[in-house]
User: What shape does this take?
Amino acid sequence: MPSSTPGMQKTIVLRQRPTDKIDASFDSPTSNFAIVPQPIPTADDLKDGEVVLRVEYAGVEPSMRVWMSEARSYMPPVAIGEVMRSMVLGTVVATKSSKFEVGDQATALAGWAEYLVLPDTGAIKIRSYPGVKPVDFLGGLGITGQTAYWGLTDIGQAKAGETVVVSGAAGATGSMAVQIAVLLGCKVIAIAGSDEKCQWLEKDLGVSKALNYKDKDFEAQFIEHVGFLDVFYDNVGGSILNLALSRLNKSARIVMCGAIEEYNKVGGTATGLTNYTSLISQRGTMKGFIILDYIPRFREGEAVLSKWISEGKIKVETHIHNGGEGGIEGAPGGIIGLFEGKNTGKMVVQFWDATKESTEGVSKLAI
Ligand SMILES: NC(=O)c1ccc[n+]([C@@H]2O[C@H](COP(=O)([O-])OP(=O)(O)OC[C@H]3O[C@@H](n4cnc5c(N)ncnc54)[C@H](OP(=O)(O)O)[C@@H]3O)[C@@H](O)[C@H]2O)c1
Assistant: This one.
């Protein structure tokens, strides 16, 4: 760890690509990340139209594991030595933009740094809604909430009375998807990785039935409780997707949102789908989508979701990976936590506790 130097901040860069699971340490030969000190930017460093954002939370997403690899995806890989790409939420502490004042809170697709210089076109000012916390703009009202909303309503075309199955249901996207489906009047079957998560999905989020995919008789439970499905909102891929493909109603829609079961195999072989021919007999569709294509409709999605959250119809859950301690060093472990199912709701890493006195924070951030 570098020594303490006032006026400096920590950034985390990609040191080497993982071949399997991520190594979250910073000091071993297999570490995937390195901490690199950088000067804390000030107003003097800004060009017209730029702001300095002090990062409070970073959102953690499974796709970050894909960005660390060389796989062809919807975004280029993060380069070796580059600051790790991440969604962030923070407060503007210096500005040369007419769109932002000091104290405004904003989200941005940026990276793992305690302070970031951003163009004002790359930062989205967050709005205030009753019952909505700023951190919800990384989850329920952010990318994952929007993903659930547009994936279910536009790609999945879910309608009242239909049977909707959601995998990865207790995660950020899944927990929003199940609640939206319940609100649309669907019969909702949720799939998650622990009995505790299943109880939460049934008791707090109102799904008809939640199934633990780690149970030995999961397949039999799936057949018993799902019967046949109209929409499969898939966050997981692999074996659960293959099972769902064998249980399609006529004109069923498979929403290809994510495939976390496959992401640690990047560069390897994905699970073969032996049941895909049912798409022919049942006239089904399987459609992939990337939420970034819906950015022009985000204000529309935000209006619907914020109303539901404010009315208490949707609960937004956040899991702070390094809760209580904070600090940018916790960021790599947040990605690992996703693959271990540590989170219920949105996984975030806290870089800065905004409730603390700023001078205390500055000394804490000095390295
Ligand atoms: N298409 C898009 O534009 C878009 C946008 C955002 C997210 N996504 C995708 O949506 C999915 C969910 O993302 P998220 O950010 O909401 O993450 P998340 O669901 O909050 O976290 C991932 C969850 O996946 C489950 N999981 C991990 N390994 C698994 C495995 N091998 N088999 C089954 N479940 C496993 C874990 O829960 P359990 O305890 O239940 O195992 C974990 O909590 C990801 O695949 C992501 O890539 C896509």
